[in-house]
Specification:
mainly alpha, 117 residues, three-stranded antiparallel sheet, elongated, 5 helices
Length: 117
C-alpha cells in the first residue's frame, strides 16, 4: 500500500515537471546568439582606484559611484566582490544592503578611503 502511494506521488511529480518543461519557450540558435550579443553589449567592467569610488544611496538601492564615470546599482556579484576586497563578511554586507543601506554606504566608504587598492 505504501509503495503504491509513493509510486503515485512520484508519477505525479514527474508529470508536473514534464508539463513545466513543455511550457518553456525554446530559442533557436539564432535567437540565442542575438540574446548573447545583447547581454554582452550591456556588460561593462571598470577599473579604478578605491579613492575614486563612493557608495551612495539615491533612494533605497545602494549605488557605486565612480568619479568621472557615473553611478551604478550594486548587483549581487559586485556586492560580493566589494565585500571580499574590503574584508566585510558577505552575510553582514547583505544584511546592511537589505535593512540599512545608509550604514552600508558609511561602512564601505570608510573602508574604501582607507584601502590601498
Amino acid at each position: 500500500m505504501r509503495q503504491e502511494r509513493l509510486r503515485t506521488e512520484r508519477v505525479q511529480v514527474n508529470d508536473n515537471l514534464m508539463e513545466g518543461l513543455k511550457m518553456q519557450k525554446r530559442k533557436s540558435l539564432q535567437e540565442l546568439a542575438v540574446e548573447i550579443e545583447r547581454q554582452k553589449g550591456s556588460a561593462r567592467d571598470f577599473i579604478g582606484s578605491a579613492q575614486k569610488m563612493e557608495v551612495i544611496v539615491p533612494g533605497a538601492v545602494p549605488h557605486l559611484e565612480l568619479e568621472g564615470v557615473g553611478a551604478f546599482p550594486i548587483g549581487k556579484y559586485a556586492g560580493k566582490q566589494i565585500a571580499q576586497r574590503l574584508e566585510i563578511p558577505t552575510k553582514y554586507f547583505d544584511k546592511m544592503e537589505e535593512e540599512e543601506p545608509g550604514l552600508l554606504a558609511a561602512n564601505v566608504n570608510t573602508w574604501l578611503k582607507n584601502s590601498e587598492f
